[in-house]
């Protein structure tokens, strides 16, 4: 989805802009609903369902749902794998910028090897090293939040576009 540039001579480009504006509004609405619902879960359960990288996940999930990086396997697998990698490196090597950089690099390579690349998840090792959470961080917020976003995305896109997302589950 791109914002149109100058319209060809004799064409106002209004219809193109309206179509893109509709897609932009749908993306914004989806991101709002998803983050509001996950935020509500956090408030109601007094549990940390929110992860900083989930905002960027919503950019892909709702702004670019056809992207390979926006599919359920990539969203959940990428977040879980990178968080696990960050936690392992933190607990094995301790805090510091070198272990953090190693964790991020290993997470990137593991996502590529497992075909679970999800760019927002690449920030999870950095988040791990900044927050220094315990092992439970893998389950909540990471895995539970990622699964919640996928479920919300599925309901949203099934309702809005009649089953247009995901393109694949595996």
Automatic annotation (TrEMBL):
It comes from the Bacteria. The lineage of its organism: Bacteria, Pseudomonadati, Pseudomonadota, Betaproteobacteria, Burkholderiales. InterPro entries: HPP, TM_HPP. Pfam families: TM_HPP. The chain crosses the membrane at residues 20-42, 49-69, 100-117, 137-157. Residues 20-163 form the HPP transmembrane region domain. Keywords: Membrane, Transmembrane, Transmembrane helix. This is HPP family protein. PANTHER family: TRANSMEMBRANE PROTEIN DDB_G0269096-RELATED.
């Amino acid at each position: 989805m791109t914002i149109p540039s100058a319209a060809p001579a004799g064409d106002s480009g209004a219809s193109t802009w309206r179509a893109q504006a509709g897609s932009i509004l749908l993306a914004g609405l989806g991101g709002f609903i998803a983050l509001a619902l996950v935020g509500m879960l956090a408030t109601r359960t007094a549990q940390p369902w929110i992860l900083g990288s989930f905002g960027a996940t919503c950019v892909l999930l709702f702004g670019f749902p056809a992207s390979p990086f926006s599919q359920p396997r990539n969203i959940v697998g990428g977040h879980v794998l990178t968080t696990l990698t960050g936690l392992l490196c933190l607990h094995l090597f301790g805090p510091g910028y070198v272990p953090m950089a190693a964790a991020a690099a290993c997470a990137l390579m593991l996502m590529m090897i497992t075909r679970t690349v999800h760019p927002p998840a690449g920030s999870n090792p950095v988040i791990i090293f900044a927050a220094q959470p315990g092992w439970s961080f893998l389950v909540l917020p990471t895995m539970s939040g990622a699964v919640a976003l996928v479920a919300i995305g599925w309901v949203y896109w099934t309702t809005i576009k009649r089953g247009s997302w995901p393109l694949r589950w595996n």
